[in-house]
Amino acid sequence: MPVSGTKRQRAQSSDETHQEIHVKSEWGTLLDRHQVLTARRVGSHNIWLVDELLSIKECARLLSRAEAYGFGTTHYEPSYRGNLRLTTIDASLARVVWERIRALVPRTITLRKPDDEAEKAALWWDHYPHAEGEWEAYGLNECWRLAKYRAGDRFLCHCDEAYVGSSPQEGRLDAVAEMSMLSVNIYMNGGFDNGRTRFFLRDDWRQQLKLIQDASGEMRYHAKEHGAEPDLSVVPTVGQCLLFQQPPGQCYYHDGEELGSGCKYLFRSDVMYRRKRLPACLT
């Protein structure tokens, strides 16, 4: 049966002649001293917006360095996730950006596994059985994922996964000492059409989206073919930062709207947390 998620055809550009690029950088020195920032919480959700986390000049400097390395294709099907990507390990950039946002994120997060099986499944607890307990924020993930979207590129509806710093050993829940709990998306430029980050927050979101099959045979949720309206849309502005909680604390399904024209750049990291203590029932 024909499906609507087949791979799109597009002339190959010079960006697509190689695979995704992995580098190590020290870009923290490209950032200036910065004024005190504030975060706007979106309703009662664990979603925050920070305007001008980076200045226009800082964004331009970072993009210049990134483009000097170039962006490569990923292993994802373009019909699902069409952007190019550059991955860099940059501890200095993580330190400087963390100093700007550390006062704006939850200092501690306490996670409790729900008793209800449906709720556990919805929050992906099967993926993070080690996550119960109290956690304390300590910094940003040094692994930065830089995305470059061109006209026609999109990222279908998905939920960000948490980064786990270590794996449980011999069934010990306390063997996992660190994991990410918040996504950090920094919009780096303007001058493009569409390209919003759109959230589908209602409990019945699966009924509002259409499940389609992409060219690799994977089933993906997609809003466009079904006409689903997002509950929240973030229109990117230069230097703006979007923060939102990851599973198993929350599971915020969102997409990257298909870009109409121009080019959109995004820097992606995570807020990392260390285990502070286990719940009493596990000690």
Automatic annotation (TrEMBL):
GO terms for molecular function: dioxygenase activity; iron ion binding; L-ascorbic acid binding; oxidoreductase activity, acting on paired donors, with incorporation or reduction of molecular oxygen. Residues 45-272 form the Prolyl 4-hydroxylase alpha subunit domain. SMART domains: P4Hc. Keywords: Dioxygenase, Oxidoreductase. Gene3D superfamilies: q2cbj1_9rhob like domain. InterPro entries: Pro_4_hyd_alph. Signal peptide: none annotated. The keyword Ribosomal protein does not apply. Its cofactor is L-ascorbate. This is Prolyl 4-hydroxylase alpha subunit domain-containing protein. It comes from Haptolina ericina.
